[in-house]
Amino acid sequence: MFSNLLSLVIWVPIIAGVLVLATGDDRRAPLARWIALAGSALGFAASLPLFTAFDTLNGGMQFVEFAPWISALNINYHLGVDGLSMLFVVLNSFITMLVVIAGWQVIEQRVAQYMAAFLVMSGLINGAFAALDAILFYVFFEAMLIPMYLIIGVWGGPRRVYASIKFFLYTLLGSLLMLVALIWLYFAAGKSFSIEAFQDIAQIPLTVQILLFIAFFMSFAVKVPMWPVHTWLPDAHVEAPTGGSMVLAAITLKIGAYGFLRFVLPIVPDAARELAPIVVALSLVAVVYIGLVALVQTDMKKLVAYSSISHMGFVTLGLFLFTGSELNVWAVEGAIVQMVSHGFVSAAMFFCIGVMYDRVHSRNIADYGGVANRMPIFAAFMVLFAMANSGLPATSGFVGEFMVIMGALQVNFWVAALASLTLIFGAAYTLWMVKRTIFGEVANHHVDELTDVNKREFLVLAVLAIAVLGMGLYPQMFVDKMHLAVNDLIAHVAQSKL
Amino acid sequence: MNWADLNLMPALPELFLLGALSFILVFDLFVPDEKRGVTYVLSLLTVALCAVLQVATFEPFAVTTFSGMFVDDPVADIIKVAMYGATAATLVYSRQYVADNGMFRGEYFTLSLFALLGMNVMVSSANFVTLYIGLELLSLALYALIALKRDSAAGTEAAMKYFVLGALASGMLLYGMSMVYGATGSLDIHVIATGISRPETNIVLLVFGLVFLVAGLAFKLGAVPFHMWVPDVYQGAPLAVTLMLGAAPKLAAFVFVIRILAQGLGELAAQWQGMLVLIAALSMLIGNLAAVAQTNIRRMLAYSTISHMGFLLLGVLAGNEQGYASAMFYALTYVLMSLAAFGVLLALSRAGFECDKVDDLKGLNARSSWYAFLMLLVMFSMAGIPPLAGFYAKFAVLRAVVDLPVLDFGFFAGSPVYLAVFAVLMSLVGAFYYLRVVKVMYFDGSQTDAPIVVRGDMKLLLSVNALALLVIGLLPERLVELCIDAMRQSLASF
């Protein structure tokens, strides 16, 4: 029954995207919207069994599919998910559906192209998470750039051209170096592009490992993004349409962190260990310094964008906490939980800002004030997500951060102390923004004319709120899924390849 | 030569092409201007029949004829079929354009077919003399085609430049060939290949000849430092002829390189690899950097061609079957991309207006989302973004390069991985200007709302052409294997 599930999760949205594109111009926009919704809903439905039928007692790959693709080069259509990747496939299918709903009325021009870009993108992202062949991964990973480039460039804000080209070239730089690394590994692994074969290469000299690490790191660090290669993100976020920001923050950033889990740590464990202090330092800079940068933003989207970088700093921090040659299990699991949680929370934050932007057409904090007086339902949701963003217990944001800090404490007190500053900064910048926009007196006539959320917006907000609370109250449901895979990963990383 | 033993079968398509085009040449004299469409249809029919004959006479091994002057091997077959396709596409795409520009005359078709014949002879030659004859037949036809629009100053200038520099390159080739002849005592590629390893062969003389040969080849490919003609000719020639120049001749030039360097002088690989490294690296560097600064899309595509030829030579310089096969794949996909790119430009040109500037594509998505989409595919394919064909071309070449043992050319010694890293960094530069084209099409507003009128057959073929990039990108297996098998069989029969 589940034999082709992953293929379905990848190709249903892509085919739906092609169908949406075929509806043509904006006269048939309603049809395009409905096909897009149907396609994304089907994709999400196909992804659900991945979660429910996932065997938590099996640390290996599940739902595996294998077919030769380019046999002359030994490239295979090899799919499968384990505890590290399964959650993201589901998360992505889920967010895609919300993005389609979020853009329902807001996008009025080139609706078909907009919806198609998101659907195709969703399929490609699922492919990147599910690929077990390095070239297959690379194809999905890179192809993603095309729809994202168009999404930012066509439907974005005033500086969209600059932002989209910057986004594209930044990410391309990293991935091209990774391509060379993959080809090198292909020969080292006895002419195989299988990621498992890469991981099982018995010996790689340290200097080569470090070069490979740099190639992978360039690619994934840009995607995460880590300080100091984060500068494309605020531009891209600010200029992207709401849906674009949601997908960028919720999903595409995770691919970078996923790359560390799938490629960097298991393939070059010794280089990862050698260079871990640098990665930890960069992550702490992201957590602390970018947190401070977020504090001074006047643009809400930029603020949430910087907050994303800061939160992703937590993720990379969690992934590189070594004691001796052992990774810290709390920190790794915390990082993955943080990734999923950030997927919900950042999508929700960007959606909230989108709701306000659609009404007032401004992202400036100064243009708001007292929104709660006119939009009480919306304000309740926004405050909830802001709490989650600042890591309040009982929301999903708390779990990941807590676990990473716990892990850090076991490794190094000062790292943990610095990392926990995020709880202060996160609360400061998020709540201060909420105070200035949501609470207080009605600031101006724009705010005075606001109407509360409609059914469509309510639906998106409610679904996200359930996810955020659910994950905060019962994180075990998610942690169970990943536990064995994380243990395997840690055992693998502990084996030196020198 | 014993005429009774002469096997004409391997050269059947060429003989048919010669006969048909001679017929068209004479027949066209009696066709009144308003019925010129007949010549067009006849030319297309000729090309189609050639393709049929080529496929019908296919043999999975090399067959020589004309006393070993002419060879028909799998590489030649595949490349020829691709050249027929490219020529047919050129004729279909340019039909409206040549009619609008007063070039819809018999000469246009016969010269195109002569160029095709020249390329066929080049591709199938097993002897320096046939190689040279084919090359000159191609070049002379192209010189005339570039200058076909008699009252165009730019066209005449381009033809002049191409002619003078082309003659110089031909001279260098001949000079190189004569030295190789002096060293090995033969013009036959087979004999040269075996002659090199003989102890009495004068290697110094051979290497000296090799330098001239490589220079001539680089000129024909348009690789740095012999690239100066490319941007000027691409820009000055009538758009229809630029389309022709950028497609099939690149395939012929590729086989030219394989015949001379791989088959003839394969033993000297250590020598020519060093030269090709320089040429390839400089082509990628200068081609990509110069393309960034162009506002004229034809010049931009010209510089992009230079960089693509650099990448292709990277595959050749691997000096093994895998490398040659990857270069062949690169050449085939490049021709598909080039045809589609110029095809879109031709579709956008209309009487009195040539789509010339990058800015002429502004807002294309609003005017016609289909053509914008096709051009988007081409641009991302040229940039090497998966899942488009251009990615696998680059990937196959990089794979061949990384597989090489440690390189040592005196001026550059080290792991071939550095070469691969350099190549991908240059691709990054390239991505910038391809992105700019997508940017003007999708992000900018339109400057004109003139309707895009395109003949149905062209629209269909252009769509197939550009979508082929996506299909090959998704399922590259067949073409990759075709290239590898053909290259293996052709090299094995040597």
UniProtKB/TrEMBL annotation, chain A:
PANTHER family: NADH-UBIQUINONE OXIDOREDUCTASE CHAIN 4. Belongs to the complex I subunit 4 family. Keywords: Membrane, NAD, Oxidoreductase, Translocase, Transmembrane, Transmembrane helix. The keyword Transmembrane helix applies. Its EC number is 1.6.5.11. GO terms for cellular component: endomembrane system; membrane. It is an enzyme of class 1 (oxidoreductase). It is a multi-pass membrane protein. Its main location: membrane. Residues 131-422 form the NADH:quinone oxidoreductase/Mrp antiporter transmembrane domain. It comes from Crenobacter caeni. It is found in: Endomembrane system; Membrane. This is NADH-quinone oxidoreductase subunit M. The chain crosses the membrane at residues 6-22, 34-54, 83-104, 111-129, 135-155, 167-189, 201-222, 243-263, 275-296, 303-323, 335-357, 377-399, 411-432, 458-477. GO terms for biological process: ATP synthesis coupled electron transport; electron transport coupled proton transport. Pfam families: Oxidored_q5_N, Proton_antipo_M. Residues 67-124 form the NADH:ubiquinone oxidoreductase chain 4 N-terminal domain. One of its GO terms (molecular function) is ubiquinone binding.
UniProtKB/TrEMBL annotation, chain B:
The chain crosses the membrane at residues 12-31, 38-58, 78-94, 106-123, 129-148, 160-183, 203-224, 236-262, 274-293, 300-318, 324-348, 369-389, 409-435. One of its GO terms (molecular function) is NADH dehydrogenase (quinone) (non-electrogenic) activity. Its main location: membrane. NDH-1 is composed of 14 different subunits. Subunits NuoA, H, J, K, L, M, N constitute the membrane sector of the complex. It is a multi-pass membrane protein. NDH-1 shuttles electrons from NADH, via FMN and iron-sulfur (Fe-S) centers, to quinones in the respiratory chain. The immediate electron acceptor for the enzyme in this species is believed to be ubiquinone. Couples the redox reaction to proton translocation (for every two electrons transferred, four hydrogen ions are translocated across the cytoplasmic membrane), and thus conserves the redox energy in a proton gradient. It is found in: Cell membrane; Endomembrane system; Membrane. GO terms for biological process: ATP synthesis coupled electron transport. Residues 125-404 form the NADH:quinone oxidoreductase/Mrp antiporter transmembrane domain. It comes from the Bacteria. Its EC number is 7.1.1.-. Keywords: Cell membrane, Membrane, NAD, Oxidoreductase, Quinone, Translocase, Transmembrane, Transmembrane helix, Transport, Ubiquinone. This is NADH-quinone oxidoreductase subunit N. Belongs to the complex I subunit 2 family. It catalyses: a quinone + NADH + 5 H(+)(in) = a quinol + NAD(+) + 4 H(+)(out). One of its GO terms (cellular component) is endomembrane system. It comes from Crenobacter caeni.
